[in-house]
Amino acid sequence: KQTFIYRNWEVNTPGNPLTHTILRGAVNKHGQTIPNYHYEDLIRLYNMYAARDLENPAVIVDANHSNSGKQYLEQIRIVKEVLHSCHHSADVKKLVKGVMIESYIEPGNQKVGDGVYGKSITDACLGWAESEKYSKISDRYIIIKHFYLLMTVELYEQCRWINTYCTLYRR
User: Which pLDDT tens digit goes with each residue over 40-50?
Assistant: First the structure.
């Protein structure tokens, strides 16, 4: 059961027994990244889920963002570590449903207006060649999220505005 305040209303809900977690890491008040994809983090999460008796404990590890310290080439090492944890523990293997890597056509990122086709204008990404090579590490665990899919799902309203702006700008 959960109780929280939303737009000045007290909301009560029985909760969601089919919940999942996405581990992205964190940044502390000093600007230091705190990764949360290590074996110990996954075991701790498994135990937290077990204590709540949820129907379908699930986690997806984001190999970029604060887990990689925004060093996009670290994503591959992180994926390998998560896979090692899955091989080491049946509980972790059952818990981990996927690992996300950030990928686009060209590696890295650029500032808006730099004009490099296929290069991210937000977070640095693996390029298509690296993504294709490493997506074969384990088909069971890797979800490659491409820039456009990420934008349309997570930033729908901004994308609509950007697309409108680009259409107007091109005219």
Answer: 999 999 999 99
